[in-house]
Amino acid sequence: MSFAPLSSLARQQPLRLLLINAGEADALSWAGLVQPLRLAAAQVGRDALQLQTMTPAQVVLAQPGWDIALLVADEQQPPLPAEQARAVIERCRSASYWGGVGAGVLWLARAGLMGGVRIALPWALAADSDPVTERAILTPQLFALDGRHLSCCGGAASIDFALTLIEQLFGAGVQASVKESLCIERVRGGEERQRVALQARFGALQPRLSEAVTLMETNIEEPLSTDDIANLVGLSRRQLERLFKQYLGSLPSRYYLELRLQRARQLLLETNHSIVQVGLMCGFSSGSHFSTAFGALFGNTPREERQRKLQA
């Protein structure tokens, strides 16, 4: 079953958004999510957005009817009692779009509700995955929007997630106003990766995969071939591809390409290097290849990306 993009919900008046706080009130995942959304609600008005925040105990007693519902908890938060967890998750799933932030993503996956769905699970919790959660497609990204399923790794990324929701629901103008109120210059996209956490996890569990990723990150300007990387870390090409597919949901060549394109995007937004220079600095000898690959990943050309910097 297909679902309309989140932007279609903005036509509903009012849009009802529920945040379920299963952790501490001052936790970063919660604060980073709720504060931008509260500012957006104040700007667009109650006729456009009704934002509700509840504890698990409160949501179990509430009547459903939300357009978006998110279950939020920091990584260190212990799971809810089994009976309460089932009731909370059922309330959450009653929304048109639903998902989790931080540990909430893991709880939903463990309930068997994320099979075949791309989820941004905090990598610090990925070691706790089991056969149920493995049926989900784990991504190392900051957040993921897959059909009606929403997920965010939590922590500081919850701010970027909230601002992305605001832009999709109410437009770039409202997002810009909230960014200004929070003194935020740049919103990280969902395609950006949890790099520090990813390296910390793989360093212990899959050292060769961690070494392969490090080789990619340190060889952006002159990319290595997949065979070269496999040889350098002591694996066959097939073994390396299997590791990337299992833990990163991608082939090494695709993962490497996205790393280079993310670096290119950063350079376009944060430096004054020409577009040609940026392409060369990220391993693209052909301007047309750079532009085509960039557009396929981000939906706009390097020139349009640079224009965003100039407009800002």
TrEMBL record:
Check the record and name the Gene3D superfamilies matching this protein: 3.40.50.880, Homeodomain-like (1.10.10.60)
**Record Pfam families:** HTH_18 (PF12833)
Q: Where is the HTH araC/xylS-type domain?
A: 210-308
Q: Name one GO molecular function term.
A: DNA-binding transcription factor activity
Q: Which UniProt keywords apply?
A: DNA-binding, Transcription, Transcription regulation
The protein in question is named Helix-turn-helix domain-containing protein
Q: Which organism is it from?
A: Duganella lactea
**Which lineage ranks, top first, belong to the organism behind this chain?**
Bacteria, Pseudomonadati, Pseudomonadota, Betaproteobacteria, Burkholderiales
